[in-house]
Amino acid sequence: MVARKPLALSYIGIMSVKSPIVTITLNPAIDQTVFVDQLVPGSVHRVSQSRRQAGGKGVNVATMLALGGAEVVASGFLGDANATIFEQHFSEYGVRDAFIRVQGETRMGIKIVDTGINETTDLNMVGAAPTVEQCAALRSQLLELAEPGRWFLIAGSLPDGMEPRFVAELIQALRGTGAKVAVDSSGTALKAAVAAGVDLIKPNEHELAELLGVELKDFDSIVAAARRLCKEQIPNLIVSLGAQGALFQTAEAELLVRAPKLNVVSTVGAGDALLAGYLHGQQLGESLEDCARRATVYAWSRLESLVPMLPQGNKLTKRLNRISVRELDS
């Protein structure tokens, strides 16, 4: 497995690094994941395992990128009252910490994993809200990092009181510099992002249906919806389909990509790992197929572990070669 990296560098000097990917987590969380044999509402449960770790979609993506050897800057807002767990995490994995501290605590997120049916129930709490001045400071910081071709990822939910307009305006400002912007969110935030114009989104089938306001009854309807969205608004689209794999869509190609049968330990963070692998492939200049293979291996590795991990060298190559890639007929 990839060795964990030394102490993260300070924010000063970030621009000297060649094309780091920048993740933006506006509403991170400290994830408390507990495992039970069977979740029954209204009853007492004995927890078989429990883990507490720094979380939030952008943080998860940044961690997998760092494990893969990518240069990555993690930004957004962190509560100053409980930032230590994030600071330790960034130091351990070699992620560059550019988060702006806000007054209060970063929210908790409780994930209850029913190991009997491999389903996760999420309880997401409300976290610290940034001020207008802190939002302006984040925007200024990100624009200083922006340059043509650099990938920025805006991931996760919005903090309490933040309007989707902030995300839309940030996207437009970043893309105005020639930077590329990916978004992994849902609801009004995702709708605002799509309307603003982004380079990549990664909804699951339910988020895609909500975005388009349609019912997606089967695989063919998902493909048709993704095809229309890609043609009209989004140049790059990834639709995660759970056990069916993932659909990778551009104007030039449509790929259905799957890993072999897995020993799934937990689904927590798997979608974030998928996006991390794709962005890393983009940073390396890989083809769509190779990006899709890398994305699927990153997700595969996360599904089989309770902690972020990734094979390297020959083990990574072997996994890449085991990925099933099918080009869809248009």
Keywords:
330 residues; alpha/beta; UDP-N-acetylmuramoyl-L-alanine:D-glutamate ligase; 11-stranded mixed sheet; 4-stranded mixed sheet; 10 helices; 15 strands; disordered N terminus
Would you kindly provide a written description of the structure presented here, covering whatever features stand out?
- The longest helix has 16 residues, at 288-303.
- With 330 residues, the chain is of the alpha/beta class.
- It has a single domain, classed as UDP-N-acetylmuramoyl-L-alanine:D-glutamate ligase.
- Residues 1-17 have low confidence and may be disordered.
- It is globular.
- Helices cover 36% and strands 24% of the residues.
- Strands 1, 4, 5, 6, 9, 10, 11, 12, 13, 14 and 15 form an 11-stranded mixed β-sheet that branches. A 4-stranded mixed β-sheet has the order 3-2-7-8.
- The protein contains 10 helices and 15 strands.
- Helix 5 links the parallel strand 10 and strand 11 (200-201).
Proper CATH architecture: 3-Layer(aba) Sandwich
In total, the number of strands is 15
Taking pLDDT < 50 over at least 5 consecutive residues as the criterion, the unreliable ranges are: 1-17
- Any idea of the CATH topology? UDP-N-acetylmuramoyl-L-alanine:D-glutamate ligase
Rg from Cα: 19 Å
Provide the domain count: 1
CATH superfamily: Ribokinase
Helix percent reads: 25-40%
The major pleated sheet works out as: 11 strands, mixed
Span between N and C termini? Answer: 39 Å
CATH class, anyone? Alpha Beta
Overall average pLDDT: 91
Report the β-strand fraction as a percent range: 15-25%
Helix/strand/pairing category? alpha/beta
- Output the number of helix runs: 10
